[in-house]
Amino acid sequence: MSVSCSHCSLPVPAGLVEADSELQFCCNGCRVAYEVIHEHGLDRYYDIRARVDAPQQPASSSGKASAPTAARLGKSSRSTSCRRWG
Ligand SMILES: [Zn+2]
Asked: How far is the centre of ligand 1, averaged over its atoms, from the C-alpha of 15 (Å)?
C-alpha cells in the first residue's frame, strides 16, 4: 500500500508516512510548500493542478495515437500527389 504526497502526489517513503495524519508528504519541501499554499488561501492550486494533470495523460498516449493520424495524413497526401502526378 503506497501513500502519495499531499503536495506532489509522489509516493511517500515508508519512513516518512505519518499514520495519524491525513496529510502525507514525501519531503520537507512539499510540507512547506503545502503549508505556504494553504496559509495564503491558494488551495485552488491543487484543483487547477488536478485539471492540468488530467489532460496530460491522454496527451502522452496521443503520442502513440499520432501514428494513425500520420497514416491518415499520408493517405490524403497520397491522393493529392496522385492528382499531381496524374
Ligand atoms: Zn511531495
From this structure: 14
> In the chain, what are the domain boundaries?
14-85
Ligand 1 center to residue 57 CA distance, Å?
Answer: 20
- Nearest Cα neighbor of 9 from 73, 56, 65 is 56
Task: Please report, in tens digits, the pLDDT of each residue of the chain (86 residues total).
Answer: 689 999 999 999 999 999 899 999 999 999 999 999 999 999 999 998 888 877 655 555 555 555 555 555 555 545 555 566 65
Distance 14 CA to ligand 1 centre (A): 13
